[in-house]
Amino acid sequence: MKTLSLKQPFAELVVSGRKTIELRNWTTKFRGNFLVHASKIQDLKSMKKFGFSALPVGKIVGEAELVDIKTYRDEKEHAADRLKHLADSSWGRYGFILKNARRIDGPQVLGKLNFWEFSEKN
Fold first, then answer.
1. Above 80 in pLDDT, residue 106?
2. What string of H, E and C letters represents the secondary structure of the chain?
3. Alpha-carbon gap, residue 105 to 120, rounded angstroms
4. What Å distances lie between residue 7 and 43, 60, 66, 113, CA to CA?
5. How confident is the prediction for the chain on average, in pLDDT?
6. What's this model's pTM, rounded to 2 decimal places?
7. In angstroms, rounded to a whole number, what is the distance separating the alpha carbons of residues 56 and 36?
8. Are 50 and 9 in contact (CB under 8 A)?
9. So what CATH class is 2-109?
10. Is 61 exposed, middle or buried (0-12, 13-18, 19+ CB in 10 A)?
11. Would you say 92 and 25 are in contact if contact means Cβ atoms under 8 Å apart?
């Protein structure tokens, strides 16, 4: 299944439904359900900002559905969605619009860049 690695706390914010747009500097034609992987490296500044001290890393933590991609053309458009993506424009100009996020207790697995295929054989 398609999988996307996110640093913590962003993986947690997605699977908890607090973050409904994931910002990226790249786009994709993919639409559909994917697994959310919490990468081994955490964003310590953001962990503190969002009030987390410890979150699972290096494992599948949930799944979500990518329904569309929004291209942010300027700072005003980006700022209008700040409560959905929880970041500033330096995180990317493409907003992956997510729906139906949910937490799962998946296996430990190494992540990769971009969307990647996870199977129980990984």
1. yes
2. CEEEEECCCHHHHHHCCCCCEEEECCCCCCCEEEEEEECCCCCHHHHHHCCCCCCCCCEEEEEEEEEEEEECCCHHHHHHCHHHHCCCHHHCCEEEEEEEEEECCCCECCCCCCEEECCCCC
3. 14
4. 6, 12, 18, 11
5. 95
6. 0.93
7. 12
8. yes
9. mainly beta
10. buried
11. yes
Q: Once rounded to an integer, what is the mean pLDDT over residues 89-116?
A: 95
Distances in Å between the Cα of 95 and the Cα atoms of 19, 21, 43, 57, 69 are 11, 6, 19, 23, 5
Distance CA 79, CA 36 (A): 25
- Domain locations along the chain: 2-109
| Neighbouring-strand partners of residue 96 | 22, 69
Question: 29-67, pLDDT tens digit by residue?
Answer: 999 999 999 999 999 999 999 999 999 999 999 999 999
Has residue 120 got a pLDDT over 80? Answer: no
